[in-house]
Amino acid sequence: MSKADKVRKKELQGLAAKAEKDIDTEDVPEVTDWSDAVIGRFYRPVKQQVTIRIDADVLAWFRSQGGQYQTEINRALRKHIREHQDRSRGRTC
């Protein structure tokens, strides 16, 4: 752990030990307008490790695209699910 991380951790522990009324938040304005808020914007689903068999050419293609191929496979599967759900509800994308 870096020195900066240790300092930050110590500060957070100090804040956690204080009563809420004793924490000075005057420099942080209270948010009263939530009209631009997006539900689930920072939601990250829990990942589960599984073994799956994928055709070699499909896997090779995803790997050849660069970046995080597992994330791209997950994204493609999510898109398939959304399209399938939309069709089953009588909608088309």
Topology:
Blueprint: H1 3-17, H2 56-64, H3 69-88
Rounded to an integer, what's the Rg over CA atoms? 22 Å
Give the oligomeric state: single chain
Helix share, percent: 40-55%
- Kindly report how far apart the N and C termini lie: 47 Å
- β-sheet strand percentage: under 5%
Name the shape in a single word.
flat
Plain-language structure description:
- By secondary structure, the protein is an all-alpha fold.
- It has a domain at 43-93.
- It is built from 3 helices and no strands.
- Helix 2 (56-64) crosses helix 3.
- The longest helix is centred in the C-terminal third of the chain and has 20 residues, at 69-88.
- The mean pLDDT is 89.
List keywords for this structure.
mainly alpha; 3 helices; about 90 residues; flat
Concise description?
This protein is mainly alpha-helical. Helices cover 47% and strands 0% of the residues.
